[in-house]
Design brief:
alpha/beta; Rossmann fold; two-stranded antiparallel ribbon; Pur/Pyrimidine_PRTase; Xanthine phosphoribosyltransferase; PRTase-like; EC 2.4.2.22; xanthine phosphoribosyltransferase activity
Length: 190
């Protein structure tokens, strides 16, 4: 998606340790016009799938998933990284290690929001090592729902996550795949 790649090159900031900051337009401050185009692109790429729910993980994926959901006309469900007093009933649980926060989270989702009748599209902002997606895949499996695919805004193609997910036979669509980050410069996969 050229619009996204151009924005990454213009406003993305490369930090030490191959960290790409896109917080000025994607995951802290959100450029809704750009994310609207991202949502349209996900709809185009998964239009053939009978999606009934979009599943993401808090927090950065929620806004993107909500914009995309308006094109699919389906609800968004998000897995939470912390137990709270207003969560009740049976839960799906899994563990997810955050690349950015260097922390393992117990991720939870109420069973009343995902079941065997659902056809799920996973949406997230980044894919690096794949831990968040693997956690969401685990929740989908536990629910008995059908996983239709995963939509990622930015994939770090030089890390293992994308290949791991594709090797599982999952339909993965990444809108911008970065093949390398060297000396502060990004190289995109065509």
């Amino acid at each position: 998606m050229q619009l996204l790649k151009d924005r990454i090159l213009t406003d993305g900031v490369v930090k030490e340790g191959n960290i790409l900051k896109v917080d000025s337009f994607l995951n802290h401050q959100m450029d809704i016009d750009l994310i609207n185009e991202v949502g349209k692109e996900f709809k185009k790429r998964f239009d053939h799938c009978p999606i009934t729910k979009i599943l993401t993980i808090e927090a950065s994926g929620i806004g993107i998933a909500c914009i995309a959901a308006q094109y699919f006309h389906v609800p968004v469900v998000f897995a939470k990284k912390a137990q709270s007093v207003n969560l009740d009933g049976a839960m799906y649980t899994t563990k997810v290690e955050s690349f950015t926060h260097k922390k393992v989270y117990d991720v939870i989702l109420s069973k009343k929001f995902l079941g065997p009748e659902d056809h799920v599209l996973l949406i997230d902002d980044f894919l690096a090592n794949g831990c968040a997606l693997l956690g969401l895949i685990d929740i989908v499996k536990k629910s008995g729902a059908t996983l239709e695919g995963a939509g990622i805004v930015i994939e770090k193609g030089f890390q293992s996550g994308g290949q791991t997910i594709r090797d599982m036979g999952i339909h993965l669509e990444s809108l911008a795949i970065i093949d390398s980050i060297a000396d502060g410069k990004l190289a995109f996969r065509e």
